[in-house]
From TrEMBL:
<keyword id="KW-0378">Hydrolase</keyword>
<dbReference type="InterPro" id="IPR004547">
    <property type="entry name" value="Glucosamine6P_isomerase"/>
</dbReference>
<comment type="function">
    <text>Catalyzes the reversible isomerization-deamination of glucosamine 6-phosphate (GlcN6P) to form fructose 6-phosphate (Fru6P) and ammonium ion.</text>
</comment>
<dbReference type="InterPro" id="IPR018321">
    <property type="entry name" value="Glucosamine6P_isomerase_CS"/>
</dbReference>
<feature type="active site" description="Proton acceptor; for enolization step">
    <location>
        <position position="65"/>
    </location>
</feature>
<protein>
    <recommendedName>
        <fullName>Glucosamine-6-phosphate deaminase</fullName>
        <ecNumber>3.5.99.6</ecNumber>
    </recommendedName>
</protein>
<feature type="active site" description="For ring-opening step">
    <location>
        <position position="134"/>
    </location>
</feature>
<comment type="similarity">
    <text>Belongs to the glucosamine/galactosamine-6-phosphate isomerase family. NagB subfamily.</text>
</comment>
<feature type="site" description="Part of the allosteric site">
    <location>
        <position position="151"/>
    </location>
</feature>
<feature type="site" description="Part of the allosteric site">
    <location>
        <position position="144"/>
    </location>
</feature>
<dbReference type="InterPro" id="IPR006148">
    <property type="entry name" value="Glc/Gal-6P_isomerase"/>
</dbReference>
<comment type="pathway">
    <text>Amino-sugar metabolism; N-acetylneuraminate degradation; D-fructose 6-phosphate from N-acetylneuraminate: step 5/5.</text>
</comment>
<dbReference type="GO" id="GO:0005737">
    <property type="term" value="C:cytoplasm"/>
</dbReference>
<feature type="active site" description="For ring-opening step">
    <location>
        <position position="141"/>
    </location>
</feature>
<feature type="domain" description="Glucosamine/galactosamine-6-phosphate isomerase">
    <location>
        <begin position="10"/>
        <end position="225"/>
    </location>
</feature>
<dbReference type="GO" id="GO:0016853">
    <property type="term" value="F:isomerase activity"/>
</dbReference>
<keyword id="KW-0119">Carbohydrate metabolism</keyword>
Amino acid sequence: MELIIRPTSADVAVTAADVLAEHVRRGATLGLATGSTPVATYQELIRRYDAGELSFAQCRAFLLDEYVGLPRDHEQSYYRTIRREFTEHIDIPDARVQSPDGTDPNPTAAADRYEMAIVEAGGIDIQLLGVGTNGHIGFNEPGSSLASHTRLKTLHPQTVADNARFFDSADEVPIHVLTQGLGTIRNARHLLLLATGEGKADAVRRLVEGPVAAFCPASVLQLHEFATVIVDEAAASDLQYKEYYRFAETKKSQWQGWGGWNLA
């Protein structure tokens, strides 16, 4: 796992956009996340597209998750959210942006179809992730199987409370979702997780320095051969070895010159 600490959340967004841009230029299959953390990164990518620096025309994208029961035109459905915040502003064809069908009367079958669609597309090249305050990624709540695939899940009350800010009240937040599983996420070739703010500091500490365990689903990144975690100073505040991570980052250019060895 490579950990990069940046001074501010704005710096996190720029660094994340740098990483994503390298994949975009190769026409990658992107795994997109919603929520508040990735928004600044999407805005930076849109800026680069508007400046003529990037084209997404050869890319395709898969969303990480979707609420069950919300129509796709609902403003808080992830189908609508990702278009409003990102893909409507770039040149990726809309038909190449796929998400789980939370309106299907058989959500289990919808989850299986979505998993197969990812496989048939050749897998995801880079999966963008955030992390919840309880350590969830996607909607894989604490206790999720580390080998799980796309499936129906019930949200933890803490996640419902965290997401209530997007709705008029917590009572309006759907409690069931379709989400890529931890096994599905691990199948992506590159994982890119972003975290900003002091509220994410405990989750960052547990995912980076804690044991790999189901009670912190994000800790599964420790098992991935190519995972990049980018955090701001506030989110890094609980890390025991943050000075080492900074040191490793400063030496990156040296070990890249030795053939790209990942020593972090």
